[in-house]
Amino acid sequence: QLQLVESGGGLVQPGGSLTLSCQISGSRMDAYVIGWFRQAPGKVREGVSCITRSGSGWNYVDSEKARFTISRDAARRAVFLQMDNLGPEDTAVYYCAARMSVCDLRVHEWDIWGPGTPVTVSS
């Protein structure tokens, strides 16, 4: 069974950057599409980005295409989310998730989830 653990969250000032990591263990990483999601306080969980098995394709929610970059490193068994120019609206718990199907951002389609890492954007 695939296991996911996020890290890299924390407190950052507006305009700052963070890189989140999703460490993957327990199964073949190249069999899974990996995605990033977030849930802000009082809001539903939403998709942010996902990356294909090979790492050659990706998908972003429209609002984050200019600020977020997803990547995967097979040797490190990890997927990363680089987030730039962060604002208070980015405050949320960020989750990585895995599925064996296509790279889309519909939350209910994803099977395996990490525990999440909190990101707070505040001065």
Name the features.
123 residues, mainly beta, seven-stranded mixed β-sheet, four-stranded antiparallel β-sheet, globular
- The tally of helices reads 0
What's the story with the biggest beta sheet?
7 strands, mixed
How many β strands by DSSP? 11
Strand content: over 45%
Summarize the amount of helix as a percent range: under 10%
Specify Rg, calculated over alpha carbons: 13 Å
**Overall body shape:** globular
Mean pLDDT: 95
Structure notes:
The protein has 123 residues and is an all-beta fold. The chain contains no helices and eleven strands. A hairpin with a 6-residue loop joins β4 and β5. The protein is globular and about 40 Å long. The N and C termini lie far apart (40 Å). The mean pLDDT is 95.
List the helices and strands and how they pair.
Layout: E1 3-7, E2 10-12, E3 18-25, E4 33-39, E5 46-51, E6 58-60, E7 68-73, E8 78-83, E9 92-99, E10 112-113, E11 117-121
Parallel strand pairs: 2-11
Antiparallel strand pairs: 1-3, 3-8, 4-5, 4-9, 5-6, 7-8, 9-10, 9-11
Give a concise summary:
The protein has 123 residues and is mostly beta strands. It has strands spanning 3-7, 10-12, 18-25, 33-39, 46-51, 58-60, 68-73, 78-83, 92-99, 112-113, 117-121.
